Amino acid sequence: MRKSLPTWLFWLFVAVSILALAASAILLVDYVKPAPVFCGEGGGCGAMKRTVFAYPFGIPMPVFGLSGILAIALAGLVPGRRARIAQAVVAVFAGLVAIGLLGVQASMDTFCPYCIVVDVSSVVLAALSVARAVGAWDPPSNRKAVFGAVGAVAVGIAAPLAFGLTRKPLPADLPAPIAEEIRKAPRGKVTIVDFADFECPFCRMTHTELAPILAEKKDKIHLVRKQVPLRMHPHAKDAARAACCGESMGKGDEMADALFSAPTEELTPEGCEKIAQAHGLDVEKFRACVGSKETEERIEADGRTWRAVHGHGLPTLWFGTQKLEGAQDQATMRAALDEAIKEL
């Protein structure tokens, strides 16, 4: 008599398989494209690509991962003793390889997030496959469930491949922090990274020119504000703290507009608090945020990012992959945005 795999265990197996296949497909895209789409060159994924384990027999490692996990997934959907044994053998081998690759990452103290997903999932699939073989379990006899699982597995592979292979790779010389912000952007939106100081006259002029563009093209723009308060401006850091807290409390754009528009002598802690109150922010929460260690660390991190992208003057703006530095007029920024939209 056929002994069916418990329903929850079957769907757990399917879910883990899809997760591993999707991560493998993502890695494969970044291996075959001339420049990575999903991972940064300077991150853990890039580091793993430079190891001797990246191209066994001259073949990208994700090809082996994708093939092995697909074989495990399909065997898990087939009834019978042979399918159970084949699934367990392949899964145990894949699990041992995954443990070895996790060890390689640990020894390098460098971790590739997608690799970790594949490796941990492979270990879980090995355990589930052995459990199936020992329990002599088969997939559900319900054909709809099996066909649904097959369809989900296909989508798990096809979606990242279609997305990654059709997306233009970022330029190899693009600073890593900018590339990371672009990758975070929703599909179809241009990333604008704006490094500014609220007391800087050129930043204030540029914001006046940029604001109409942001309002007009808001459905096409993913705006990232970075705070770079200069020491020469006495209230710049107070304004930067206020902007960070406005952003964390859901009023980032409103606070930025108000801080750029307010007279610079009013960008004191008290003045910034009045601006926050005028925009409906909870004063007690705002005060706590302004004085928090997290806000200070955010501003310091933004400054390090500005230096990492070779910022020399303010404002420094990135419209997609194009850098603009210093005061900018509306025509220049519109042209940069239009060019970035074409590159999507």
TrEMBL record:
GO cellular component: membrane
Record keywords, A-Z: Disulfide bond, Membrane, Oxidoreductase, Quinone, Redox-active center, Signal, Transmembrane, Transmembrane helix
Superkingdom as given in the UniProt entry: Bacteria
Molecular function in Gene Ontology: oxidoreductase activity; quinone binding
Membrane topology: Multi-pass membrane protein
Protein name: Thioredoxin domain-containing protein
InterPro entries: Thioredoxin-like_fold, Thioredoxin-like_sf, Thioredoxin_domain, VKOR, VKOR_sf
Residues passing through the membrane, by range: 57-78, 85-105, 111-134, 146-165
Chief localisation class: membrane
UniProt-annotated location(s): Membrane
Residue ranges constituting the Thioredoxin domain according to the UniProt record: 148-342
Pfam families: Thioredoxin_4 (PF13462), VKOR (PF07884)
Similarity comment: Belongs to the VKOR family.
Cross-referenced PROSITE patterns: THIOREDOXIN_2
